[in-house]
């Protein structure tokens, strides 16, 4: 089990604060600036940083993250490079680091090699997007044996039985997808997000992070009324793309993360009446 992820959610619980999970694609716009982006996200106050492995067929991702993967792949970035990226900055980061990947890059490297290299790099948790819960046992055990947390996605269509299984197999936290479809910023939090978290709570004692569609401080605040953390991905990745070729890239990333945290204040998490 990852001590960092456990410590993060333990502190959030003690402080009564909503966690912020920030997603970026590793190697976008290139490896050097990607390292600076991870440092900026950490300085901005993210509790968990999800580093996406660029992949040519990211089925769960909308156009923003698809284009980020394309840019990273065009720059020659692969799973090995992303693990090296994490290793290079790990000692400078306070946030926990979760690797966000599809199965193919891991299978190509080999499960044993991947888990050893990921653990050595300082990865705290692994979320494999397209790994069915029913087939997750061997990979999940390899991740656990390497001292990392296997993290699972659950959605509004996940059955109660599969929610319970995800709670048994998962560690660290469960990632609740607030809406069906692919990633991408939306104007409002999905109407079924609260009901999904209630179902997850009934099936598992693991902390819950909710994502897909979040982009603003008020979204984070709303999620904090019923979940432990909010996940922001596409909006951050899109902002990076818009300013990637300007001197403001790194300051803009830090400002954006700080802005998202604006309404993450003690006393909001779990309070349905908070405003």
Structure description:
The chain is of the alpha/beta class and 275 residues long. Helices cover 46% and strands 14% of the residues. It contains twelve helices and nine strands. It has helices at 3-15, 31-44, 63-74, 79-89, 103-109, 111-121, 137-145, 160-169, 193-203, 217-223, 234-243, 249-260; strands spanning 19-25, 48-52, 96-101, 125-128, 149-150, 153-154, 174-177, 208-211, 229-232. The longest helix is centred in the N-terminal third of the chain and has 14 residues, at 31-44. The protein is globular and about 50 Å long. The model is unreliable at 180-187 and 266-275 (pLDDT under 50).
Characteristics of this structure?
9 strands, disordered C terminus, TIM Barrel, 275 residues, 12 helices, alpha/beta
Tally of extended strands?
9
Helix content: 40-55%
Strand-pairing-aware structural class: alpha/beta
Looking at this structure, what is the CATH superfamily? Aldolase class I
Tell me the domain tally: 1
CATH architecture: Alpha-Beta Barrel
Number of helices: 12
| Order of helix and strand elements from N to C terminus | HEHEHHEHHEHEEHEHEHEHH
The best one-word shape is globular
């Amino acid at each position: 089990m990852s001590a960092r992820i456990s410590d993060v959610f333990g502190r959030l619980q003690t402080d009564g604060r909503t966690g912020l999970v920030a997603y970026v694609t590793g190697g976008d716009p290139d490896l050097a600036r990607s390292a600076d982006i991870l440092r900026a996200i950490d300085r901005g106050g993210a509790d968990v940083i999800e580093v996406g492995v660029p992949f040519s067929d990211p089925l769960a991702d909308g156009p923003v993250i698809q284009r980020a993967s394309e840019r990273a792949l065009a720059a020659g970035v692969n799973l090995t490079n992303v693990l090296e990226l994490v290793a290079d900055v790990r000692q400078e980061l306070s946030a926990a680091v979760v690797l966000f990947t599809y199965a193919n890059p891991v299978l190509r490297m080999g499960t044993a090699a991947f888990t050893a290299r990921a653990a050595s790099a300082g990865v705290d948790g692994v979320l494999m997007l397209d790994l069915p819960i029913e087939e997750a046992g061997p990979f999940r055990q390899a991740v656990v044996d390497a001292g990392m947390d296997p993290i699972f996605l659950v959605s509004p269509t996940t059955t109660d039985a599969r929610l319970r299984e995800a709670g048994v197999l998962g560690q660290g936290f469960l990632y609740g997808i607030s809406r069906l479809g692919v990633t991408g910023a939306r104007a409002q939090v999905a109407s079924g997000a609260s009901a999904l978290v209630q179902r997850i709570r009934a099936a598992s004692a693991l902390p819950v992070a909710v994502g897909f569609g979040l982009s603003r401080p008020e979204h984070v605040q709303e999620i904090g009324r019923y979940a432990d953390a909010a996940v922001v991905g596409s909006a951050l990745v899109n902002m990076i793309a818009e300013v990637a070729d300007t001197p403001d890239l790194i300051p803009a990333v830090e400002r954006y993360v700080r802005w998202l945290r604006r309404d993450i204040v003690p006393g909001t998490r779990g309070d349905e009446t908070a405003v």
